[in-house]
Design brief:
The chain is of the alpha/beta class. The chain has twelve helices and twelve strands. The chain has three domains: 44 residues, Orthogonal Bundle (434 Repressor (Amino-terminal Domain)); 134 residues, Response regulator (Rossmann fold, 3-Layer(aba) Sandwich); 132 residues, Response regulator (Rossmann fold). Helix 5 runs parallel beside helix 12.
Length: 343
């Protein structure tokens, strides 16, 4: 029966009657080792089933060629973001370690420690909805580990942020609805702790003010999450009120789809009686009937940019007292579809 024992460079050295240092250098094509010897070492290593221990090598060098990615969950938007990260990371010879907090603060704290214990070279994080205190991330900045917050970023944390111009996106989405003749536009928010939702709301309010439309507190409704069931409750509350809105600006496409389907259940025509615009341009937005207008979110580019920032700063990460907040803004566009197209 074949032995399950891991083959080491000591086993290869013993078989070839060479020093372990020679085996090690030969496997790395070191110029001090002759070509014939290198070929013999590699041939023997392959026959014996040798696999290099990258973990041990990286620990000796006190680093892993790994980028840790900590996300709330794997949504279509975040899946595209991961793809962007992987393209940049793999091109540079790095692997990507993905972890999900499921929007739990406690889970995020535990996973942060796990990433640190795994000696990742850098960390890219989009915060959990429950997170209000980000002190647990100081473990990276205090030890020179490159850290980038993406999309959901903390209000105050001196490190790299890669985000969109959420204020502009909120303004453009609301302005589009106004251009279609909408007068009572509702905004559904998930939480104003994050700039991503707070700034979209500020853009929404700015558009209303610019067009002299009243700002009504009952038209701004908060949900506990971006999940369909929570969104449905918010939509029912809006659409069954005494004076329902004629438009809904949803901060995510799942919420926008919920608005369309809730309206259908209540016998409200979309877009004739209710115009709807979502956010992210998830695949579901082009499947729902009528197709959902949305704000395009450059998820892939956001992931790629985040990884490039990490790779650029892995070797030269600054200590806590030298860090400043460095923000990279990416652009968005309005993608008009049937759900909001009245004119």
């Amino acid at each position: 029966m074949k032995s399950s024992k891991e083959v080491t460079i000591y086993d290869i050295a013993k078989k070839l009657n060479l020093a372990t240092s020679t085996i090690s250098r030969g496997l790395k094509d070191h110029p001090t080792i002759g070509k014939k010897t290198i070929q013999k070492i590699k041939k023997t290593a392959n026959e014996m089933g040798y696999r290099p221990n990258n973990l041990a090598a990286s620990l000796r060098g006190n680093k892993m060629k790994t980028i840790g990615v900590l996300l709330p969950s794997i949504t279509p938007f975040l899946s595209s973001l991961i793809s962007g990260i992987e393209v940049a990371a793999q091109k540079a010879g790095y692997t990507v370690l993905i972890m999900q907090s499921y929007d739990s603060y406690e889970q995020e704290v535990n996973l942060t420690q796990s990433l640190y214990d795994n000696r990742v070279s850098g960390v890219i994080c989009s915060l959990a909805l429950q997170t209000k205190n980000t002190d647990h991330f100081k473990i990276f900045t205090n030890n020179g580990t490159a850290l980038v917050f993406v999309d959901r970023v903390p209000n105050e944390f001196d490190t790299f942020h890669v985000i969109i111009d959420n204020y502009s996106a909120g303004y453009k989405a609301t302005n589009h609805l106004i251009s279609q003749g909408c007068k009572r536009i509702a905004y559904i928010t998930v939480g104003l702790e994050f700039s991503v939702y707070r700034e979209r709301k500020e853009g929404y309010l700015a558009a209303l003010k610019e067009h002299s439309l009243p700002i009504e507190d009952e038209l701004i409704v908060r949900t506990d999450s971006i999940k369909y069931d929570d969104a449905e409750k918010a939509c029912i509350k809006l659409l069954q009120s005494k004076n329902p809105p004629d438009a809904i600006f949803a901060p995510g496409d799942t919420i926008g789809v919920s608005a369309i389907q809730t309206a259908k259940k209540l016998g409200i025509k979309v877009p004739e009686e209710l115009a709807v615009i979502g956010f992210n341009n998830d695949p579901i937005s082009s499947i729902i009937e009528p197709n959902l207008s949305t704000v395009t979110h450059p998820a892939f580019e956001m992931g790629q940019t985040s990884a490039e920032v990490i790779l650029k700063n892995i070797k030269g990460s600054k200590r806590k007292n030298e860090l400043v907040k460095q923000i990279t803004y990416l652009n968005t566009e309005i993608l008009v579809r049937a759900s909001s197209k009245r004119k």
